[in-house]
């Protein structure tokens, strides 16, 4: 079988969701949003898989796979009384098994935040595979500094703009 005919193509997003919680529509909506943003399969995301989960109630997580490496992009936090054994058994949060919970969040992300998380993790994984030490972090105000944030490449800063002209949302987050 030729490499272009592989069944599983990477980079790949896997959205695992609880069917008992009726999160199917949410998972499908995230899939559509990610496909619209990461439109070039040769560069961005080659595949998005939906995996319904029935044996672990409350599960909602987004995983990113690049070749054989898999990392957690987003995991919905469980309530303290719910599924403690499942949460502890998976190592916590970032897919590295270190239990720091850095990829666990309350509730569900809006599409823009999820896209930023995917873009950041994808860049980190690609850089790590290429041997680069530098990683691109999501920083408040990058979209105004001309550097471009993860979702707004190129920024909106004009030649005469001062750095203190941050938008209201950035000022609130940065304070």
Automatic annotation (TrEMBL):
InterPro entries: Selenoprotein_Rdx-typ, Thioredoxin-like_sf
Keyword Electron transport: no
Biased composition (Acidic residues): 95-107
One Pfam family, short name: Rdx
Chain segments carrying region Disordered: 80-107, 125-146
Keywords linked to the UniProt accession: Redox-active center
Domain of life, per lineage: Eukaryota
UniProt protein name: Uncharacterized protein
């Amino acid at each position: 079988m030729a490499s272009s005919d592989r069944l599983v193509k990477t980079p790949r997003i896997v959205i695992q969701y609880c069917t008992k919680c009726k999160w199917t529509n949410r998972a499908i909506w995230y899939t559509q949003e990610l496909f619209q943003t990461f439109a070039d399969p040769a560069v961005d995301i080659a595949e998005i898989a939906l995996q319904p989960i029935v044996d672990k109630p409350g599960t909602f997580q987004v995983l990113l796979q690049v070749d054989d490496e898999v990392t957690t992009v987003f995991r919905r936090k469980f309530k303290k009384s719910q599924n403690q054994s499942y949460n502890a058994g998976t190592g916590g949060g970032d897919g590295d098994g270190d239990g720091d919970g850095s990829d666990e969040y309350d509730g569900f992300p809006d599409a823009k935040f999820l896209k930023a998380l995917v873009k950041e993790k994808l860049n980190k994984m690609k850089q790590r595979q290429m041997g680069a030490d530098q990683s691109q972090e999501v920083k408040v105000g990058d979209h105004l500094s001309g550097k471009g944030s993860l979702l707004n490449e190129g920024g909106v800063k004009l030649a005469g703009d001062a750095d203190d002209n941050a938008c209201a949302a950035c000022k609130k987050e940065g304070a």
